[in-house]
Amino acid sequence: MRSCLLVFILLSFVLWGCKPNDEQSKTLTIFAAASLTDLFTELGHNFEAQHKDVRVRFNFASSSQLATQINNGLRGDIFASANESQMEFIAKKGHIEAPPIIFAQNSIVLIVSKHSSIEISDISDLEKDGIRFITAIEGVPIREYTNKLLANLSQSDVYGENFARQVFNNLVSEEINVRQLVIKVALGEADAAFVYASDITPEIQDSLTVITIPTEHNIIARYTIAVLDSSSQKALAQEFIAFILSADATLEKWGFLPVE
Predict the structure, then answer these.
(1) What mean pLDDT value characterizes the chain?
(2) Distance between CA atoms of residues 177 and 255, nearest Å
(3) Alpha-helix runs per DSSP H in 72-177
(4) pTM for the model
(5) 22, 105, 113, 203: which is deepest, by most CB within 10 A?
(6) CA torsion 224→80→18→187, rounded to 10°?
(7) By the 8 A CB rule, do 210 and 94 touch?
(8) pLDDT, average across residues 40-49
């Protein structure tokens, strides 16, 4: 299991290309949220299979990191964000070619490490003393969704108005993106975190217990995509986006919800 997790870690945060360099190839550079790693990796391979002269290259990181990179002048063709606020940020800065499109949705779940020494069988257990709760740094989409979710739960009579504060009293670490949260909980370096349902991949699912969030309190994450103004091949970029929009079966395979 540890070897599987190591592979998972190595695949998660690199500037990645689907096939070897070829001087005859066109290179499509896509800035994509870390939670899209598995989905976009497969879609990149599929797109290349249909376009023999195209090489797809990904920059996976948190949406906030990617937005900062784009705003600081790093060039690419497409930006795919795990929330709408980071896309709005670069849109206001004039970095996208046309209005963004919502292409996928995701639900939030609570993951618990099977290595945890404290029993966590319900969301309310996050208040227990000694729980090692982790989340992402402020500005990262999963942190925004976590904050909203805990605020929702705190308005419920079931959890009480102090619930969010008590959970954050158990906060022991803030990570740079959602994939780091999944890795730490899977390895037993933390007890629990809120992540996307799509993050529960085969490589790590045996190390985790997944607790679903009551529908009336849960948050639906909306993923947006747009062509960057810095793209030198906007027609090809639009073709890739159209390809994404026609891939509902692949989205569902990786735990995403299609846009209705």
Answers:
(1) 91
(2) 18
(3) 84-92, 141-154, 163-168
(4) 0.86
(5) 113
(6) -100
(7) no
(8) 97
